[in-house]
Prior knowledge:
The protein is an all-alpha fold. The protein is 69% helix and 0% strand. The two termini are 25 Å apart.
Amino acid sequence: MAQSLPESxxxxxxxxxxxxxxxxxxxxxxxxxxxxxxxxxxxxxALAFFFTGRxxxxxxxxxxxxxxxxxxxxxxxxxxALVLASRAQESRPRPxxxxxxxxxxxxxxxxxxxxxxxxxxYLHIPxxxxxxxxxxxxxxxxxxxxxxxxxxxx
Length: 154
């Protein structure tokens, strides 16, 4: 028995697949909301620090928020690929996950760690500020979750 996806605005055609396969994925609206809210929260916090006379911290927060946004986009791509692979192998008893999905997840964290290290060492941006900027993703996820709870789809 096939499961149908919700017909509410929560499904989308994945633009990341560049036209190859167009499958509606649940949670797309929340995904987009978290992505833009990460940047908005990061930029707002960076501006607050900049106008209070801490430009190095403002730069670190902006950089951290940007890295958090990249991390979220890469994570979403990996999960979308995983969903598409599992749907393509519905009839198999043990679906196989492409090796690239695992390596992309490890590469994502290694790349973010390398970026933070290089920025800290060569640009002398405070490490704590970049970590605070990375927390913009968590704050955006919390705000988006609260929004979904308070304004559920009808």
